[in-house]
Each structure stands twice: as structure tokens, then as C-alpha cells.
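Pasting as-is:
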Amino acid sequence: MGMMDLLYHTYEYAYEAKDAELIENYQMAQISATAPIEVWITENGEFAGASYISDKNRQKISIPCTEKSDGRSGTDPFPHPLFDKLSYLAGDGGAYQVDNQKAHDTYMQNLRMWCGSKHGNPYVKTVLCYLEKNTLLHDLVRTGILVEPKSKEFDKRLKEVVRLGIRRDLQTDLELWREKSIQEDFRNYLAQSQREKDFCYFSGKMETISVNHPRSIWNQKANAKLISANEDVNRGFVFSGRFETANQAAQISYEASQKIHNALKWLIHKQGIPIGDKILIAWGVDGSNQEDMFGSTDVFLGKDEDEGEKEAVADTQVEFAQRLKKAIYGKEQDLGHNEKIAFLVLEAATTGRLSVSYYQEYGFIQYAQLMKTVERWHFAHSWKYDWYDARKGVWKSRIMAPSIFDIAEFAEGVERDVKGGKVKGDGKKKKIESNEKILGNTIVRLLPCVLEGRAVPEDISRKLLAKACHPLCYSEANWNKLLKITCSVIRTKYKEVGSMEINKDSIDIPYNYGRWLACAHEIERRALRSASEKRETNAMRLFTKYAEHPNKYMAIVQSKIQVYETKLGQKAYWLQNEKYRISQQLNQNPLEKLVAARHLDGRMILGFEAQMETFQKKEEKEAAAGGEANERIEEQN
């Protein structure tokens, strides 16, 4: 009951705080509906006009509902009390070959019962007066809202919700879907007609029990319910354990069910994050959004308004650590006024069932431990990322941990053209695409890494590493991002060489093979740039094979870059010296180990990236000193 208890208190908090959206659209005994057909009647119950609303934003309204109509599914018609589908409201369906008599009769019977009670609303009685004339379809055909019967357009309109309003002579028109007196009268009528009370497992009190819980919690999975039991339908086919009835397993009062489900709908609409085929909600009792914990570090840190833009970019590990600690402290203080915070992932396991894929909540005394865990994640998986400030026309660097969404996307996705198509397009912009279900499952597996301090699953690390070894499958921008994300994820596994700075004393074989390949790539890249050529270097072309058989392909790469070393002349001396020093580090290993080197692991990627970062710093210093022009912008574009 932990999740439901938190949702219940979230609703209570937001209602007492008079949250405008919750009060407008997520009241008890109300649901949100799309109602494009607008019908106007006079105060005497005569037809006054109709229109069709095409604007999707204006179509959304809040309508009264009963417990049965809110959770209706299948073929049994449980009509809403006032606004419903055209097929429910139309009494002249027979004249247009529409088989809706059962649905219409049930709707009218319920409407008459409401109007005949002591809570009958005068505006609703006007609607009843009009609908009893049985001319709704005729009036809509006459005004052009409906076309000829038995057409696809006609059948589509029958399934759309109708809203009604009253045209008044001396006053402004009355939009009944906004009329507070109707909502209040219906809630009073509903309370009067509710069944006998029973023991509520949630509140521990004797209250009216909800039998048919709400659906449409998450619009993308409209028919999925969080609480459901089809005992009458499935009896004899589904094993029920020791329970004979659904209420023996769990019974929740109508009030608690409404508040819990409405709080969940409100949170999903306000701050739900789609993750593949699932939805992630991170919130506190006050409804505050906690999703920044799963974003990259720059999202988590935000921007310090007092210290300006300079503070927003951390270009050293010391500065990064200081900013992270400061942000963690601020976040911990912000959480202080919340009784609890929670992280929830929902998934529609079937079209009719909504399941909880992940749930974790933290009480007040656990906030400090949670923030320490989040801090460890951001610090342990930080790496240097480059980004281009188009406004100032300069490149900037930022140390940060990647978001779990980016990690999952690159681990499970493949690169395609923006409009779809094959992997390599002709100058088209690229994006990473992945299967929604697989992507969602991977993100759920990464959530405990951030919140609970667990290690990144090994299979995710292996996928990133395998893809990082195939640079020709990606555009330059996407491969560079993949390379840095891979380093962020695997650096904790290889702590000796997992630093962003080069470990020049290391004789690690995969690490130095990666550094050597970076030198070969840089030599050819500079030579191609001097000749105004733009193509892949031999190091990139042979990257995958080099990782599998480094000794064999080291000799091949060396033979192919000799011509470029000659072209660069003296400009290549410092690169050749760096390459020579790396070879000396490798030769400190026993010969049998060097000969046996195969299928290099993540240390090669770490060595390659650290060496390329050193070259980049040197190039930036040359550009700042008036040397070679900074051509990285042209290369990225």
C-alpha cells in the first residue's frame, strides 16, 4: 500500500494547495474526455445550433462520471451521467440505421433518475427535455455536422463525445461542462445513491467500496487498469489461490480509489516521462518533479543564477566535484519539506492491465543516503563532453555523467537517417532509433544504478563497448558521443586506467594499444586537413579489426600512415615521438602477452579517448596562440 498511500497524500496536498489543473480536471467523480461535437440548446430545451471543434486543445473537457462508467470496458453500456458518445445520447438512431437502443435507454434512465432526485440540477433537466424529443441525429445532419448514414465518417462521429451548452437571451451562453453547480450536484447525488459500506483495506475504515476502478490512467494505454479483477468472466479458467472473490484479495473505498487514480493521472500528465513503452514518474508529496536525478549531470546541476554562465561549465575535475557537492546539498535541502519522494514506472502488460515495473520510495531520514548515492553515480560516471555554443561560435567542454536515457538509447539503438532508411545516408542528419519495449526495459534496469548504487549491468556495458568499436556505423557526432558514454560507463570497471587524463606510466596492453591507434588517427587526420580532404582515416576504417587482432593490424595501419607522416614533415615529429613512447610502454610487457593479445576490452577505448582528449587540448592551445585554426566546427558540420 506504500505507493497508493503516497498517491493519496499527494492528491490531498495538491487539493489543499488549490492546484488549478488538479481542481479543474482531476476532481472526484470526473474524468477528462475529448468532446469535439458541441450542441447548443435554448433554455426551453429546443435545438439552437451545433458545431464541430477541430482544435485538439479545445476538445479536452472534464465530464462527470460514475464508478461503472469510469471503468467501463467490453460490450456492456455504462453511460456517463451527462456528456457521452453520440451513440448514447441519440434517441433517433433507428431512423438512421444505428443500433444504439440499449445504450440510449440506459443513458436516459440514469439521467431521469438524477433529475428526479433532490440533487437534480435545473440545467441538466433542460438537457433531458431536449433529448426526450429524440431529434439529436436529425439536428446534426441538418446543420452539416453529420453526413449520410452508414458512411465511415458517420460511424466515426457516433463514437465521439458530445458536449452541451445553453444559449440564453439576456445572459452569456452557459457552457455546461464548466458549470460548477452541475459537478457539485452530481457528487451529492452520487453520495446519496452509493451502496452499503464495508471495510476499506486502505484506510482501515468502513466506507463505500469501489468495485470498478478507473481506467484511462495513461492515455497512451487508455483501457489499461491498475486495479482489476474479472472474476465473473474468468472464474474456472484462472487460478485464484485461496480467494473466492476479488474483495477478499483487496477492497478499496470509492473515495480512496478516486483520489489515488486522479493523483496518478495528474502526475503523468504534468511530469510523466515516456521511456519506450513505459512511463516514469518521479515526484514528492507536494507534486514536485524529481526527474532531474536521471538526467545528465548538467541537468542535475542546473544553472547557478547568482554566479552566472561561467559557473555552469565545469572544465576541471576539481571544479566539477565542488559543483556536484553544492548541488547535492541544495537538492537535499529542497527535499526537506517533502514527507516522502517516490520513483514509479508503469507498463501496460496487456491492453487491459497496467503493471508496476519499478517502484522505490524514500522517507525523510533516507534523503541524505539517497543523495550520497546519486552523488556517487554522477561522480563515478563523469567524463568530459564537448558541446558547441552556436551563440558565441565557440566550443566548450563540460564534465558530466550521461543520462540513463542516453545510455539506454546508444546501448540498444542503431543509427538511421532522420526520416528512416539505411544506416548511411547522403549527408542526411542521423538519429539513434531503438525498439520501444527493449529501450524501456533497459532504462528500468538502469534506475537502481542511480537510486540504489548498483553497478551498471554487464550486458549493457558490453553492448556499448561492441558498438563503440564500429565507428563506421555512425556519423562522427554520434560516434564521439557513443565513445564518451562508453567511457563513462566502463571507467569504474578499469579504475587504474579509467581517468580522463592519460596514465603515461601504465604498461597495460589494451590501454596502450588504444593510445597508439589514436596517434595514428591524429597523424592522418592532420595530413588530410592540410590537404583539404575529408574522409575516414585508415585508423577508423580498421578500428574494428584492430580491436580484434591488434598486432596484425598495427603493422597494417603503420604502413598506411607512413605517407602522411612524410607529408606532415616536422609537424609530425611530436606525434611520432608520442607513438614511439607508447610502443616503449608496450614493449615492457612479456613478448608472449603481446603476441597473445586478442579482442581488446574496454581499456582500449579508454586509452584511445584519453589520448584524443590530449590532442584536442593541444590543438586548442595552438589555436589560442594563433597557430593552426580551430577547424573542429567545420569537421562537425
